[in-house]
Fold these 2 entries.
Entry 1:
Amino acid sequence: MSDVAIAPRAQFFEDADRITHDTEHRRRIQTAMGKYYVSRYSRQALFRNWQEARQTAAETKWAALKELDKHLEAFERNATARGTQVHWTSTGEQARQVIVDIIRRHNARRIVKSKVMTSEEIHLNQLLEQLGYDVIESDLGEYIQQLKGEPPYHFVFPCMHLSREEISDLFENHLGTAQTHDPEELTMIARRVLRQKYIDADIGITGANFVVADTGMISITENEGNARLTAALPRVMITLVGIEKVLPKFSDLALFLPMLATAGTGQPLTGYNTMYAGPKQPGESDGPIEWHVIFLDNNRTALLADPQQRDALHCIRCGACLNVCPIFKNVGGLSYGTTYQGPIGSVITPHFRGLQDWKHLSGASSLCGACTETCPVKIDLHHHLLHNRRNAIDEKRGFLEGMLWRGFTFLINRPKLFSLSIKLGRLFQPLHALVKGTIFDPAAAWTKSRELPEVAHESFRDYWKRRQSK
Amino acid sequence: MKISLFVPCYIDAIYPKVAISMVRILEKLGHTIEFPEELTCCGQPPFNSGYWDDARRSARPVLERLKDAEVVVIGSGSCGAMMKVFYPELFAGHPEEASAKALSAKTWEFTDFLVTKLGVTDLGATFPHKVTFHDGCHGLRELKTKKQPRELLAKVRGLELVEMKEAETCCGFGGTFATKYASVSTAMGEVKCASAAETNADFIVSADSSCLMHVQGLLDRQRRPIRTIHIAEVLASE
Amino acid sequence: MTEREKIFTRIRDALKTQAPMPGHHGSSHKPHAISEARNAIAGARQWLPDPGADSAAWLEQFQKLSAELKTVVHLCNDEADVHSKLRELALAEGWRKVAAHRHPLISPAATAIALPALETDGGYDANEMAKCDVGITACDALVAQTGSIFLTTRSAGGRALSVLPPHHVVIAHRDQLVPDLPAAFELMTRLYGENQWPSMSTLITGPSRTGDIERILVLGAHGPRKLTVFLI
């Protein structure tokens, strides 16, 4: 899919370079993540055994995927029994078409959305706006990003990079409200604007955190109540969800909901965890008269077909891997250019949108493993970055880099030659001062910000030889 | 015990004192050291770059040469992780799979070897300085060596350990990442250096010279007074 | 072939190759036998935070978490006590209109407040509900472990009543307090069984909140700014 103006790789380097030099931006992100760190790990410590909880969660997801077809069928059976309409779409194009058809059938004009990351994936807003519909994001952070004309910065904290001053300016420009730097007042401005939108909307679109097979429910996790309102007031509700979000049993939520809250924000439980089991049922006082659940593949089955990385489909989108990632904290969320940022995004985007176009994100990692350590469902994230690197080379070997590694291997397999090259290095190092800082510096990528270490007067192998000969 | 010492390329060429210190410590404990001179590199650079064929070509001589070794010790969490954790994966489904697993089982990172395998923590060292410890990611997360270096440092006379806030945060080295994504690597390193400097320590100690090469490079450029030193050198100080 | 069939074919083809068990790589953790893994519910109970040993401890835990979450909890002797406390609250906050639903605990309370009341049973006008100062509901359970309220569209007067008005008041009996989430999910399954599920069930944990602006906590993002529980 080619929906970006410049190549993803060039855009990443350009943006990452800008943010890494923006001290204020990095400071803001690092401060926010510092707060996350404190609340998350103190909450995690209250678990009687977090590691066992993780293992169980991982195995539950593993087992769920192992029989994904059966669980999806069970969901469909149970959901349709209560009047839910279930749709199956392979591509973003098909999902968009199903949504537009529903909107047209109801002559709808006004659409309110709660957070739906899958809709970012299929660029739904752009299409609906083009078609002239009034589409509004109701999650506060998403709403702010919508006003700003920017995709979410972080899939859990969409506008964490903005200061209150910037948000105040946005509100003043778009809503004509008076300047205020009080987060509470800013929140109340959005509350007032959005309140009427729920009541007036013809259609509500939501995402889903979990698809519960044995009861035919979907479960939505949120703090603000916007998803609950989106699912309560409009007369038609649409839920767009990836096929991988399955949990076999209703009771599995007893484990997954507190883990999602703990890993995501350090809360005991997120403000609202709501399970929907159909449109308005006989005898109920409110709720949509129609509920459509649209399952989206969009290359998830391609990832499913890779047994080594299949566990990336365990993801519950808690965002913890972003929060602890030193790369994310220094390049920021928008540099990725993806729907899902951070380590999980770097792992799955190559599967969703093409390995050669997105392999640079798997390269953009020191492989430190903080993501894997923090993941509540034990996705082997940093090793998958290695796997993506390998797969990219196996598919298409770089010519120059390939030569380099051939040369490297040639050299290190010849100890005498290797030893000689160390000696040459020692000999020529003083000459480096002549080119250092110029365009002729062969080590410029290193020396632009760092001093080069000095080659020792005597290498260890020379020392050893000398010692052995004594 | 007869110990085969695997000396990574950068220790050999730039930081020979690290390996010399290791020899001194292990010999003092009564062990015999063997240095397989034919070996220069574990093959991690091509491995991390996705060139697994080249990595295997680099690693085969290591498997072959260390086949009969009793135990292999490495003064680097990173190369240690390569041989202990990644060799079995690199050779999975290849004829060398069994020998990769066998090597993995007898390979030790230096601090882990001293504390876990030998059960030694007091090496009689004296290092009268305030230090902070940087956890190299491979040692910390692939080899689970969090406690081992700290137990060793706790027994060094005169040494005061002050933990930095970002002890477990990556320094940003990451091998070829440091030059392929130089600005990101540098930004990460700046966070690390600032965090270490906050402790007012004289030294940043680590079990990985590769991290320290990057951190020292930044410290030198920023003219910060704090120095870096490998834990083996601290433990060999008298 | 329909799109549905195509997707299921791709899934089944993909699943022909097994994925390794979680924790297979670079970890010392030994994977469990799979029969054990499927028993997540039993596992959850022993690993989740400790809610305490008896109902007194559960109540203490519920109150402690409620305080952290900014949920106000009133312990009441009886329904009359609830009614008088509600009247005080109505006066203090200057309520003019309340929203409620037909329920043995809620209807008398709504009457006791003696203010115009909207009843959601059988349908209502959302614009009218939006003008109400408070939504008063019953619930199915209270969860000590997380400080949560479990309610459904059936037990609490619909989907909107507990989320649209700016103040949500819950009236419940103390014996509705369960220790932990596994117990809460067991209870819900017992109450609503296989196909009797209400179209919405929700676990409410504190008043509506957001941290979207500079990660600073603000209450009342879209839902209620206040959450008050009267526990009889």
Entry 2:
Amino acid sequence: MMLIVAALAIFLLSSFFSLVLSSGYGKSNSFNSAMSILGAFTGLTGAACGIWSGGKFLPLTHKFWAHYLYLDYLSHFFLFVVFLTILFVSVYSIDYLKPYREKKSLSFFWFNFHMLSFSMCAVLLSKNAALFILFWELMAFSSYFLVMTDHKAGHVRHAGFIYLCANGIGALFLIAAFSFISDSSYSFVQTFSHSSLAFFLALAGFGLKAGFIPLHVWLPEAHPAAPGNVSALMSAAMIKMGIYGIFRALSILSPWHSSWGWTMLAIGGLSALLGLIMSLGQKEIKKVLAYSSVENIGIIMIGLGLAVLLFSLKLNELSMAAFCAVLFHVFNHSLFKSLLFMGAGSVLHAAHSGKMDELGGLAGKMPVSASAFLIGSAAAAGLPFLNGFAGEFVIYYAAFSSLQYAETSFSIFAILFLSLAGALGAASFSKMFSAVFQGRPKMKTDRKIEDPGFYMKSAMIFLSSSCLFAGLLPYFSFNFLFSGFNQGFSESRTMLDLSKILLLMSVVYAFSVFLFIILYIARKRIFSKALVSHSVTWDCGYSSEVPRAQYTGSSFSQLLTDFFGKVAGRPGACRSVNGYFPSNFSYAASSRAFFYETLYLPAAEKIKAAALRFSFIQSGNLRLYVFYIFIALAALIIWKI
Amino acid sequence: MENLRILFQILAMLALSPLLFGIINKVKAVFAGRQGRSVFKLYYDIYKLLNRGAVYSNSVTALFKIAPVAILSLTITAALIVPFGGQKGVISFPGDFIFFSYILAMSRFVLILSAMDTASSFEGMGASREAQFAVFSEPVFFMAMITLSKITGQISIYGIFSRLNPSLWVVNAPVLTLLVFSLFILMLCEAARVPFDDPETHLELTMIHEVMILDNSGPDLAYILYASSIKMWIFASFISSIILPRHSDIFWSDCLFYLAGIFLSAVAVAVTESVMARLRLLRVPHFLMAAFSVSVMAFVFQSFKG
Amino acid sequence: MEIISQFIVLAVIFCNFFLLYSYSPSELVKFTAIQGVLTAALPLLSSSEFEYQASAFAICVIFLKGFFFPLVLNRIIKKNVQYSNGKPHYSGAISALLYLSVFFLSVWLSARLAFETKALAWIIPASFMTIFSGLLLIILRSQTVSQIAGYMVLENGIYCFGSAVFVNQPLMVEAAILLDIFVAVFVMGMAVFHIEREFDDIDSEKLSELKEV
């Protein structure tokens, strides 16, 4: 598809421009954003045509392209998602990066931004494993540099380091998986065919990028550390590369074993639940959003597991519906997650703090950001009228439809995981929204809090309207995205049923909105004759109003975090109270990362201790190192001859 | 004829739902040896509130002012999915109970946000507890739906309830009894009755639903009270459709049975309220998990039968 | 022609001997240059007909290895006059032992590998020996010039090996090797300059101060 290749060329060119012309245009936000928008728009049209036609519109037939590039429906879909995200994030970046411009030159930032866009799309286009890994690593490095934009802060460097480790280990798993896939003569133990081994290696490698539990530890570090637009791009587009990889692994490896489906279902369920439980205990906006990404990836994995299991039971139509549900959720998630990160970015711009304990009452002063964030939160919680619900509904539908067949015990797990995730998501997002935007400001600040600049606002408005559109009229987005899938819509009764149901849902939404309008008009008429006055909030007669007495985010979620205990990451550190009249007492509550501290840090310490025992090999003597090389070469030669 | 029936369904639901709270209060009064309030008290209350003005707090935004309207419209939308008298609800499609549950979740979300908007610690307390209860009650509902779907092989509410008839009860009595039990507990939780919440008081012990609407006044409060009565009706109709299923072609007799079932469930709620005390707050998740395990037991019974 | 080639191969082998024995840096540079010129001249003499390309290339190589590299290295030696005495830590007997073991190792290796060369039967062992003596120079000497010289001797050996084995496309291989050594000497020259300026010393023993643990 020449449009897509043109988009890629634009990205590549703008990356070189930003590096080469680092004194003039390269630094300029508007120039780079304009190039990025141009590239994204070009690619978006190409990908949209590709999706609509099922990958058959203007294929790349020239021999040169056909050798290196591979474009089918799946690539077009993910390209669509990626280009859409890049488009909106570029518009957002024009205003978001303005405070950075005074501190440093942004040419390196934009170079990495364009490189990230380029490599993400190139990963989706690569035909063979070598190109895939090459662009995968390029994606990893450019996103690493983007995460480290504020590298003067210690926690940012720490986050970047963890991210780099995750990328490296993921790449190792991927290389191992690819070598297993290509080497068909390798057979393992009887119970485990080597395609299963390859699949699980690929799952681990892609999982480190996608971020499901327990491979998610870099997400809550890297997303808060990165600037807002980078987090939006990473969370909405780059994480999906992991999902794309799993899709490709499924399409290459066959036959599908049901253990794969069970693993993905278990991983997905765990991620969905634990992600939200951990997000309940967090005190910083972006960390909550990062854990919410973990949750949504969990929902995606639930859908994938369900699809694989349904396919292994020969329920092909339902399986295809589940795959479509996964893709649908990928699309919807990129929309609302980038919206949420943009909202978080505007809060950071206005209040210079992302800690929920210091914010509050911002809705009155930042109405646009607040409404955008509200729409994003409702979508992320999977509530109806917004697009998060549509994807979950299709997964539910596939699971429930398969209940009639006796062997489908896995559907129950899928349904229960999803329902718990829905309720926890509503709790977590209502906590975050209310702590940040509602109530009264918890800490006094002299900053002028207002809505962000024009481009940030317009990006958020665009995204919230697309969330609303995709949510209120899921029929359109569903049909647009999936008519070209596989053999086409009209052959699958499930897909037709689903589109009819989604149409009905839109009718119900319309009816509900109509009801709302009627009741609102009735209320207005009542109020035109009634007496309305303003007073303080009812405080049971207590005369001085203290903003600190209101429920903060942590108190809101206290019941749930106490129930889930250490997993939610809230060990309160307090000295025990002695006696009946204690004089000194202190309490400190901090949000910890459960998996990082219980799993990864001890493992890292042990590995480090074991490795230090071999440190004598590194004597620092240069000539000894050359001797090592010589020994290794000699050993290889002698072994071979 | 069809349209007339639908109109009758809607009107009956809208008109009769405030009666439920009156019946409950009357039965509780009988238990306590009092005369109690009138059965129609909620109607008078709603009318009185609609004619009053309102007082708004200084901390609230526009969200607070439109939340009651949203809550009422969402609850009425959810109520239209529920079957009435053995017939379809106004809205019915495969998978509608998922939609139904999430519409109720949306109205709960809006209520929580409007409570947090007031910057009051009371309302925050109620909102926090409400959010926690929701986490534990959602799986109960879905597990009950899974079991019902497995029994009847259908995935829409009307489909499920239309397949329930007395002969099914004969075959599946233990399963359906367990299901009714867990759905009853769910109704107590969602409609904020004892043992989850005491709608009579506003003390800290019972600050859950009642306290979230502490700052609403006038027509807003009228909307919210009406919405909570409709919610009670919804869950009572679920129970009624299971315990007294009747699908003859005569609409009127079906309606009578259905209304009798609703009346019975209201009386059961009242009896429960009179004999039980409110649970300790920390025990509520355990109680809901007990309801969940009852549903799971029902499912296991069902699977191992067939 | 063939006799001259055989003598040249023998000369290469003896150059290795002198390299392992000498410890003065200027001597090292001298022998390295001689060895380089000899190995560059080999393909010229072994082919029967006269090829313009090969001879032009060989003249370039002779210029580089015989003239240019020693010039660079002598400048480095002159700048660091006080460290020009790089006596190795081991005695002459051990040098002889090392030389003999390298000789036997290379002969054994070439017997195992069984390359077919045209007439010069000893060229493969000679190239292996050159490679190994270069490696020994790097490993066993601590002075920087010794290390650079050792690297160049290594490259000589690879060049010799390449000219012996690659009959069809000698030019590409040799050009690659030449580029390699050119860049390496260039970089090493710069690196030595900077290291000396920074640390006032170019003894690689002192580098072990920088190790981590």
